[in-house]
Amino acid sequence: MASAASETTNRPDEWKIEQGINGAKLPFLDQTGDETIKIQPRVWGELTKDQAALDAVGDRDELFAREREGWQGYVEWEDYPAKKEKAHKLLTCQTFPPNPEYQMGPIPDTNPVLPGDDYKAWHAAIGGELTAAADDSWATVLEEKHPDMLHLLQFPYNAEPPKRLVTSKPVTPNPLHFVRNHGGIPAIQKEKWSLRLDGLVANPKTYTLHDLMDESKFARIEKLVTMQCSGTRRIEQISLYAGQGDSVPQAPWAEGAIGTARYVGISLKKVVKDCGGLARGGKHLEFYGADTYFKAHQAMNYVVSVPWSKVKANEVLLVWEMNGEPLPRIHGFPLRIVVLGYIGARSVKWLYRIKAIETPSLAPVQSREYLYFNQQVGKHNQRPTDGIQIQEMPVSSAIMSPWNKQVVIHNGAVKCKGWAYSGGGRWPERIEVSADGGFSWYAVPNENMSKKHKWTWRTWEFDVPCDVEGWIEIVCRCWDNSLNTQPLNVRAAWNWGLHVTSSAHRISVYSMNKSRALTRARLERFEQTGSPLAPLTCPEDFVTQNEDDYQKFWRENDPRDVDD
To answer: Which residue numbers delimit the Moybdenum cofactor oxidoreductase dimerisation domain (predicted)?
Structure first.
């Protein structure tokens, strides 16, 4: 007779699958017929390649060779539809490694967290100027970024600083500023760089960096600006419900995808005026970045747009300096766009062209991504026209210390610190903290907040009163100067695209109040006996109440059980 073990149909991780801990392996249940049908998750087979089709495309090193002297890692896609078609054939006649699934399963405990193998393979498949894009990108990271950066996605590079460093200074040092790249990192020589401004302008022109830095023509501007990724705090949405997958893996951003820097440059409005202003019909400005982006097996340059009204208000800058230094290569050297109060995705790096157009850009990043969907919208019915285009960032805030699930020993108040921000030229006016899940709120005193600016965050510190012990929920929320505030729960902010986690930030903390005599005595006992206090789940290795005290208590109090 066969043993029970040999007859089982369970997988080794059956319990984890049933409990949703490894949800990516759960079958879909189709209950629309007489019988329920299980739709199993796709199993990826071996990678395939149609070599004849690849050879028919031609010599990749010639097709995608360097086309501008001093522009390493740049391929012009938008001016050459035939080149785009060649790339499309290269990407469709072979298969590539899939995105790693992490939303419905354990997130790797590595740094980099996600490798981006698919994006690496796509760049390598194109070849030519993109052959070394992934290696060049990582080399730039190691050269320019702080060694403690959390590399959420190795390629294209996405990273944020650890919590302890996010608000360590009101102005973020360049090596600690978050990075959200969509492709490789072009290396462009300043002397060889130029900017084309064309489209619906009276007199299209081309500018060198020297031209733009000519103060006799363009007044220089210095602005302190907070830039925020729309994916900030995405991990909270993912922890609640999985959402949209993408060709660029949805990096599991925490609270560090935000940073503040002092930029120097000029107003784009002045440059448009130098071109004679907009021609009839011009209502939007389209920005072209030199990095290569992929979407649905198509290669393209990174292209987005903003309305002329934003430019006209002098809220779109062309910048070449960041915190007193030339723009780091990883942040867009030699020139980038900075759009005040908008999501970071509109602040194009490695800018080489601006085109005046009639409508918002139809490029995929603008028209089909960075959209905020209704909660009824998902994989089963999503259309780009269902989403709100994300431009201005809403009010938001986050707690940097303590950390979620952390044990805090205190004397009746928990020391907290964090940041608060509102886009669109609004600013944090009041920051509130609660230690009871949001029932009672304490306002952070003004002297505990950083200075108020129109386009920046405010960092804050506050000792929130806390008498209770055990698991508590600390919450922070912000009110801006227009009295906008945050939804109280992440469920209200969840959306299929996993963008804009604007809800009040909540963390679970285990409170040990040392101002209470029993707690103080118990902590001393741990210290005296050497019994491990951490982790929380480690049992104490001493008796917490001796037999005499135990018996005495029941002699002096009602028994646990009564007869009638």
So the answer is: 389-509
